[in-house]
Design a protein that fits this description.
Low-confidence stretches: none
Radius of gyration: 27 Å
Largest sheet: 6 strands, parallel
Helix content: 25-40%
Length: 620
């Protein structure tokens, strides 16, 4: 036996490897990003032959995993909750068609949200797709459920979703495990067009088969006592019971245990869909009222359907957004106690700590691009060259161009291009020449930019597209992109240059530049503007390429340039407002802007920024 403290995502990786997973695919996105790297670590340490890949997007990832599963292998696909939106088309069909080997889809939710566009609940997507879902409360349980999901998926020949929340993904737990072994199963695809290429009539038949599977799985979930269970005393009636799943279960269980409240029964639903109605019905009969604690929406509450006795979001007892943090659950349960005439908790809630922190009036530090980030230089040049443009942008580090006044819209992956195209046609219809500059990252462009760009070219849109190429997928944890040709396990793949992809989309104006040279980039943007506005012009694409200062510390700043700010500084705040480098700050003692040398990476870009010339190279 081995013993190790695993990150929650590492525990999921361990469970998948213990289940004999042979193929694993993913597109990185917080809070799911660590699952695939943890699988790779286990594969290398245990000398396994499991195939892994960073796919170009989540649909591509699920397609690859599904193909492996219908060839009889055990497969997994990992993503964050909004990534499942991208993979939804495949998900809906895969559940109808079923599988041969096991297929586990890990979709990590982000209640809060901490780093996502939405707080959407993967369990509702599972309900929409009619796909069984498991909801772990701890890293150890996530590991167990990953194994169980693979086994049940193969048994019922249907994909299973594992839905860990961010607090499970990023918690840590000590786990023991035995050496891992290769799964010897070989791929074998049995041709069956009636299933794998089903026409609408056959899909109707497959839908009937799916419904029968769900009925069987619901009955099975009622007997899976290790993940769905309650602590009712036979024959006893209760004024109030609590039903919970995921992280809220772990929280309320601790609260009830700490308060020694044995008078409040607790039903855990680690497998909420299909609803184990035999189990929930018995619990509802034993309780006069039931409080449902779940994140982040109303799956369990909705499926229970008993509005007269069920309390939760639909009754207004649970907040409609945000995490169910311990203090929120504590206060909510206590309020329900008071409302129902049940003895409240003996202790007071811990809101005093929150009030204390608020009273300190600590400065709010908004997210910002790193010192030396090449995107900052790109945005500075964009604002200088096209100050009156509409700035459409995308999902990634460069979303923080908001702080620099160079981002007006952020919708979803790839929308920088499609929104730019939409704006162009909206204004062109009115005979207006509205400048538009779209910004998108290299990884995001590979993910979902090409389809939008082809559409924009095909339909005659005109705008400037700046691809911010820092040679890495930075925000989600420094994963490689197709542009650098490094695969998930570190081996060498075939690099796909951005220039070739852009040209293949039908673009005639393509130029690459280092954005650290803001003067040259400003000039290039003006050149691109002339092309866009010329009679024979179209979309102009600029690839602003410079290595990420975090991922490529030795290459990003090859010739360090130490800088200082002289007494010529008039405190116009232009550098603070328009360039916003964290190394620049107002020094109260000096009465002017100065440089935090501990943060400065000596990129020297700020030498091009100050309109008074007060930022100079340090000659010492």
């Amino acid at each position: 036996m081995k013993e190790e403290i695993f990150l929650g995502n590492g525990a999921i990786a361990l469970g998948l490897m213990e289940s004999g997973c042979q193929v694993a695919t993913s597109y990185p996105g917080t809070p799911s990003s660590e699952i695939l790297p943890e699988m790779i670590r286990l594969i290398k340490s245990e000398k396994l032959n499991t195939y892994v890949e960073w796919s170009t997007n989540e649909k591509v990832a699920l397609d690859n995993a599904f193909a492996a599963a219908i060839s009889g292998k055990r497969a997994a696909c990992c993503m964050k909750q909004v990534g499942l939106n991208v993979a939804a088309d495949t998900l809906m069909s895969a559940v109808y068609m079923g599988t041969v080997g096991g297929l586990v889809i890990i979709s990590c939710d982000d209640p809060g949200p901490h780093s996502s566009q939405t707080e959407q609940d993967t369990r509702l997507m599972a309900r929409l797709a009619k796909c069984p879902v498991l909801d772990p409360s701890t890293p150890g349980e996530a590991r167990e459920m990953a194994r169980l999901a693979m086994e049940l998926s193969e048994e019922y020949r249907i994909p299973f979703i594992l839905r860990p929340g961010i607090r499970v993904c990023h918690a840590r737990q000590n786990l023991s495990w035995e050496p891992l072994e290769n799964n010897p199963r070989k791929a074998s695809f049995e041709k069956n067009p009636g299933r794998w290429a089903a026409t609408p009539r056959f899909r109707f038949i497959l839908h009937g088969e799916l419904n029968k599977k769900l009925e069987e799985i619901a009955r099975r979930f009622s007997t899976l006592s290790r993940i769905n269970h309650h602590n009712l005393e036979p024959g006893r009636k209760y004024p109030l019971g609590v039903i919970a799943g995921g992280v809220p279960f772990a929280v309320v269980q601790d609260i009830l245990r700490d308060e020694n409240r044995t008078d409040i029964p607790l039903l855990k639903l680690g497998a909420p869909y299909p609803l184990p109605s035999e189990l929930t019905d018995s619990f509802l009969k034993a309780c006069d009222r039931v409080l449902v604690l779940e994140e982040t929406d109303t799956l369990i509450e909705y499926l229970l359907g008993s509005r007269d006795k069920v309390l939760g979001r639909l009754s207004g007892h649970i907040p409609s957004q945000g995490e169910l943090l311990p203090q929120v659950i504590y206060g909510t349960v206590n309020r329900v106690f008071t409302e129902l005439g049940v003895a409240p908790f003996a202790k007071k809630d811990d809101l005093g700590v929150t009030d204390l922190v608020t009273s300190l009036e600590l400065p709010v530090r908004k997210p910002t691009l790193c010192p030396g980030c090449p995107h900052r230089a790109s945005f500075f040049a964009i604002r200088k060259a096209r100050p009156k443009a509409i700035f459409t942008s995308d999902i990634g580090c460069y979303t923080l161009g908001l702080n620099l006044g160079a981002v007006d819209t952020v919708v979803d992956m790839g929308a920088a291009i499609t929104m730019a195209s939409g704006f162009y046609h909206a204004f062109e219809q009115d005979g207006l020449n509205q400048p538009i500059v779209a910004t998108i990252g290299d990884s995001t462009f590979y993910h979902s930019g090409t389809a939008g760009l082809i559409n924009a070219v095909y339909n005659g849109a005109r705008f400037i597209l700046v691809i911010l190429d820092n040679l890495i997928t930075a925000m989600t944890g420094m994963q490689p992109t197709p542009g650098i040709g490094i695969r998930a396990d570190g081996s060498r793949g075939k690099a796909i240059p951005l220039e070739r992809v852009v040209q293949g989309c039908g673009i005639d104006f393509i130029e690459t530049i280092d954005p650290y040279d803001t003067k040259a980039m400003t000039a290039l943007l003006k050149k691109a503007t002339k092309y866009v506005e010329s009679p024979d012009g179209g979309i102009a694409v600029i690839i602003a390429r410079h290595p990420c200062v975090i991922a490529y510390r030795g290459e990003a700043v090859l010739d360090p340039i130490p800088v200082i700010i002289t007494d010529d500084c008039t405190e116009c705040n232009f550098c603070l407002d328009r360039f916003e480098c964290p190394a620049l700050y107002h020094d109260e003692a000096l009465g002017r802007t100065t440089i935090n040398q501990a943060l400065c990476v000596q990129c020297g870009v700020c030498l091009q920024v100050c309109p008074k010339g007060a930022i100079v190279q340090n000659a010492e």
